[in-house]
User: Fold this.
Amino acid sequence: MNMFLGIFLFLMPIFLVISWGRRSSKRLPPGSLGIPFIGESIGFLRAMRANTTEKWLEERITKYGPISKLSLFGKPTVFVSGQAANKFVFTSHSSAISNRQNQSIRMILGERNIFELNVEDHKRVRGALVSFLKPESLKQYVGKMDVEVRKHFEMHWQGKQQVKVLPLAKTLTFDIICSLLFGLERGGRREAFLPCFQEMIEGMWSIPLNFPFTRYNRGLRASARVQNMLKDLIREKRVELEHKAASPQQDLITCLLSIRNEDNEEALAVNEIVHNVMVVMVAGFDTSSVLVTFIVRLLANEPAVYASVVQENEEIAKSKPSGEFLTWEDLAKMKYTWRVAMETLRMIPPVFGGFRIAQKDIEFGGYLIPEGWQIFWTTPITHMDDSIFPEPSKFDPSRFENQSVPPYSFVAFGGGPRICPGYEFARIETLVTIHHLVTQFTWKMLADNSFCRDPTLVPTQGLPIQLMPKKLC
Assistant:
């Protein structure tokens, strides 16, 4: 029996290729599906952890061109690259390409998360999330975020001679998430979230083998614990709203619970709230903490850039009475600081890429992408394209002046109608954090500049730095 099963698994990709070849006049992209189920997943993950993924992809492009087939995370996959590919991924109608992620992400974040929904459900859930994450709504939370950032620096940075930036940045972004998304104050309950949440994230980019010793299995179990915690919070928030002990805009959960349909019923089911709060959690936790960490690294290595960021932020600090919180208007003045953040995202994007799924047979670049196959896109190919960004290895924030970057070439937040709805949240989080960092401290690096991806960026030793406090004159 085992022998026949092995033969079947070995021959299945061959039958698929022959079948698709017969069904279309267009041929499949070049490349190989490799070992059944495993494919090139192990090689890809090794390259991520060794920080050689760009080279790994460039070798594929050199060998096969900008479009090629492979197998990743248990699914036949088409890798696409370049500005035209980005536009294809982010503008294609959802009847042709859906947001569906690989199995590891889908099972850990839940099947009702925004990436998995059909056209109407996607529109409904995205609209609900945007009602909280749009700039008009987030303006009122700048002060609350400022409180969390000040408290963080007071507890974890002040009085320290050395710190490791990445672990502390993760602590900060997690505290901001708990405060603004859940309305969950500091204490044991908030602390119980963190280890489950981190283990859940580790399982998202893994081979979906559900055995007790695998990262995927640990991620699934951690996800179940996080979902149960969120369901408890939802029950409590619903009671608070019913008794008018909470406002509809108090945090993300109360906002989502307050949205009603035409029959005056809750517009989102409980599992939709849970799964999409988890999406926002992941996006706000990992990407923002990594961005802050690498801005700290960049400022230590670029004295002229650091001096300009300090000048911009010290002018804002000096214009405010002592102790007054930052406002939306203050953030609008941090134009150069945000350009520094954008250039950091261009050179070292926290999110390496993502997956879509073909909803039907579609064609791109002269090749067939069969129904049900994954589409894998990445950020570095266009971010480091010297025909789009001259001298791409040079750090130059002026690239982002006057919105001069060509469409679909900078995709750190996606693009077009699929741009990340949490973009503004990340901007506020980053600017408030960098403001307090550069007005309170100077620093120097205590380790080299190397880093890996596991699955997001991890600098050597968590980026240890030596801290020197300073006083604002």
Confidence is low (pLDDT under 50) at residues 1-10. The chain is about 55% helix and 10% strand. The longest strand covers residues 67-72. The chain has one domain: 2-469.
